[in-house]
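Contributing new complexes? Match this layout with beta-D-fructofuranose.
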Amino acid sequence: MEYLHPNDSATLVHIYKAQRYLLLPIQEEQSEVLVRLVGDRAEDTFLDIRLAVDSIDYYVPFPLPEGEECKIEIVGLGKEAITWQSLQLSDSFDTSKKDYYHPSYHHTPPYGWMNDPNGMFYKDGTYHLYYQYNPFGSKWGNMYWGHATSRDLIHWQTHEPALARDTLGHIFSGSAVIDRMGTAGFGKDAILAYYTAHRSLGGKQWQAQCLAYSTDNGMTYTKYQGNPILTPFDGVADFRDPKVFWYAPREAWYMIVSADKEMRFYRSEDLKKWDYVSAFGEGYGARPNQFECPDFFELPMPETGERKWVMLVNINPGCPFGGSATEYFIGTFDGETFTPDTKPEVARWLDFGKDHYAFVTFHGVKERILGMPWTSNWQYANVTPFKQSRGMNGLPRELFLFSSAGRSYVGSRPAREVTALRREQILQPDLMLRDSVLFSNLMKDYAGDFELELEFTPDPAVERVGFTLLNEEGDSLPVYLDMKQGRVVMDRTRSGITDFGEKATPHERESGDWRQREGLNYHNDFALSTWAPLELCVRRSYRLRLFIDRSLAELFVEDGRIAMTNLIFPHSPYTSLRLFSEGGKTKVTHFRLYHLSL
Ligand code: FRU
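Output block (do not edit by hand):
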């Protein structure tokens, strides 16, 4: 390896015989500099990488043409930076070192940054999950589609990224479909991936829809020569996250795309040329908020079997607790227009936590609507206490319609496959609870990975009933029913680390970077309780199911009528449990604790 400094800020690293990777040292608080493999493929574009200046947080592997001579161009890094003494050629990259908060049974990439799930589909017994991925650091940037597959929705195998950032831009979110008939001209059973190309030009953002196809069942993709395939007719700057679906009554493919504060429908005959149909959303739901990551599918009403259309709208900001969240609308669709059943001012939430975003569903799953959320919030996603890998997906969930007090809702319950994670269990006898009971060290051997299940039947006088998870450091996570206010609450105010504000770099605070635009008061944004209305449950008994995986808490009430997903950062795993019932007695039944592991 030899360094050539043509001028003060641009350096060429000349590698005479490349190994598989050049290991790049990263210092997260530094600004991004430009790094590029010199070449003529569209993917040989400049990447934004936080190369180390005076200390190293971790390394990332930069892929090289193995065995060949090559050059890497680095622009913007001072001559004194420790990167210059730390670059290493290597044939392997060690991902065995895990962050303290690394989840044990949720999907997460082995290194780098992850946000939205993308292009999920199911074919021949395999679930494919792609995701917004930065392979060159654990903060948002350099969007690729990372790739993982699973046969059981629980064990995920990581593959090479499927789509790389290129000269058209970052590879933003989107969807995939199986083209069984070969309509697009890439053969029968080709997988078609639709994504948004995003780049900034002279301070202005440009976004357009693109297509890539795979003829090997989604393992590798070729970008379509005619990209982009769809640009906005009115030049709207926020135009992204295409979701393609089949609409049987018209035997036609449709695409739904977010366009600023609305969703737009398009229709196509050849899956390449798309014609505008209609728009929905302006003035509807929580507003005025940026619409992102749409989904659109049918679900039956349980009582009548009547099929309704559901539109998922991920909005940022707009979450009742600040930042990003998943909203939905139930209504009808006639191939031209979507008409919601609710008034414009009604906002409905798929999850009542603060860390549930970009929920989208799998294409190709027949008997159920199955999807996954990314479990973070754009307010603080870039500064959570992770290093080696930042970002994880929630448990796979099945969506269903239900009604309560004459209104229709979408519920979200863990997919049945999740029970395969259960190992040992502790069964507790039923009990009549008054005041409080401490189960000291109940979860001691479960090292932060468990599922707790119980049912509360409170007497009418009860004001609050629930439980608190506790550890030896004095952190606590109360989860309870507030019968007076009619709410189920998860309070992470004292759950562990709640203030990671100091990790926001001055650069992030000052710059107008694409993802740093909102919310810098991490303490107040993180340390809070989230709640959901108990009126979604109709019985006088409440069955709670709580999953804890190191830094994630997912609560489901009444089999998913209420879902609540929150990040937590306890200083050590919660080991004890205190049950409490205030104001009256509560019967506790079905009380079980499971150790979960892969
Ligand atoms: C949602 C989102 C999408 C976009 C992607 C970029 O979290 O903002 O709208 O495609 O993230 O990574």
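Reviewers usually confirm one structural detail per submission. For this one: The first helix runs from residue 83 to 86.
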